[in-house]
Amino acid sequence: MPGKEHKPCVVLGVTGGIAAYKACELLRILQKRGIDVYVVMTQNACRFVTPLTFETLSGHPVAVDTFDRPQTWEVEHIALAKRADLFLIAPATANIIGKMACGIADDMLSTTVMATRAPVMIAPAMNTGMWENEATQHNLRTLASRGVQIVLPASGHLACGDSGAGKLEDVAVIAERALEALGRTRDMEGLRVLVTAGPSREALDPVRYVTNRSSGKMGYAIARAAAQRGAQVTLLTGPVALEAPQGVQVVPFTTTQELLERAQELAAKQDVLIQAAAPADYRAQKVAPQKIKKNSGEPLVLTLVENPDVAAALGRSKRPDQVFVGFAAETNDVLAHAQGKLERKNLDMIVANDVTLPGAGFDVDTNVVTLITRDEAVSLPLMRKDEVADRILDQVLMLVHDR
Ligand code: CTP
User: Fold this and answer.
1) Phi-psi category of residue 298: left, alpha or beta, with phi > 0 → left and psi -120 to 50 → alpha
2) Of 19, 82, 219, 284, which is least packed with CB atoms within 10 Å of its CB?
3) Global pTM?
4) How far, in Å, are 25, 43, 123, 313 from residue 168 at the CA level?
5) Digit-coded pLDDT (tens) for 262-298
6) Is the C-beta atom of 307 inside 6 A of ligand 1?
7) Which residues pair with 32 in a beta bridge?
C-alpha cells in the first residue's frame, strides 16, 4: 500500500485589514499547488471574514483567540507552530508587525508565530501613512534582519480612499514567494558552508585605518539564505553594522591577514566556500604605535604593502569536491575581469557586478549580477540581495550535485 503523502504545510496568519478576504484566494492557490494550509486569525480579522469561511476552505479548524479554553489553546498553538513548514502572515497589519518586532505575544497568532522555528514570511497591507510611518519601517527592518521574508505591498488605490504604497501584493505573487520558500526550505541540508562578508580594516595608527566600501549585506544575505535552506553555516565577518542571521555561527575578523588565517582554519571542513568579503588589498608597512600628528602642512606619505590574496590562497588548497565562489566588483570590462579572476583564483563560480549601475554595489539592498561558471554566464536583472543570494545558492547546489 503506498504510504501517505506528506504535504508541505503553510500556517496562514490572517490579521484584521480589509485585505483579509484576499487570504481566502491565497489559501485556494496554495491548496491547488499541493499545500496543506492551517489558518490562525486575530480577533480583528474575524470582523472581516468569519472563521467558518477559512474552516470550510482549509478543511481544518481555525485557530482564533481562545483564552476561554486555556488548556487546548496552550497545546494548539505549539502544535501549529511545529506543524508549519512556512509561517505566512497575509495580510499583515502594522499591529502584528510591531508585535513581532518587539517580541510581544498576547494572542493566538502572535504567540504561535513566536513559537515557530519555520521560516516566516509576511505580506503587509495597510494605509499609506501607516506604511510610511518610521515605526513601521523600523519594525520591518528589524524583522528583515532576523530573517523574516517580506513581500512588499504594491502601490495603488487603497480601500480607505488614499492612493499610495500599502496595498496587499497580488495573492498569486505572494503564493509564488511562499512556494519558492517552501521548495527551498531544506535543500541545503547536510552541507557545510563558509561565507565571508564585509570589509577588512588595516590600522594606520591607534585611531585610523584603511578600509573599503563594503556593507557586508550581500554576504549576510547569502549566509542567512543558506541557513534557511538547512545548511550548516559559518559566517566569517569583518566589522559591519548588521545583525547576525539566526542559526549561523559567526567568527569575526579585522584584517585581511586574520581573514586568511581564520578561513584557512575553517576551509577543510566545508563543502562550499563563498568569498563575499572585501579584503583590503594593502596594509600599512608599519603601523604607527602612536597617533600620527599633522606636520605643519607637509604631505603625509604612507607606505602600503600588498596583502595576501585570500581567495587565491583558498583556491590553491581547494579539494576537488569543494565548491568555491568568489565575487568581482568591477567598474569596467566586467565580464573579462571577472573571468580572469575565476581562472586566477581557481574558483568554480564568480559573481560579477558592475558597481556603477544604479541599484548595484555598496550599501544598497539590491544588486545586478552575472553568475559566471566555467560553462556559462547567467545575467540576472535588478533584484533584492536576498533574492540574489538564493539564485547564487541555486547555482551552487547545481555545482555541488555535479561533483
Ligand atoms: N579577494 C581576496 N583577497 C584579496 C582581494 C580579493 O580574497 N586580497 C577576493 C574577494 O573576496 C573576491 C575576489 O577575490 O571574492 C575578487 O576581489 P576583487 O577585489 O574584485 O579582485 P582583486 O583580486 O583584488 O583584483 P583587483 O583589485 O585588481 O580588481
Assistant:
1) beta
2) 82
3) 0.64
4) 13, 20, 7, 49
5) 999 999 999 999 999 999 999 999 999 999 999 899 9
6) yes
7) none
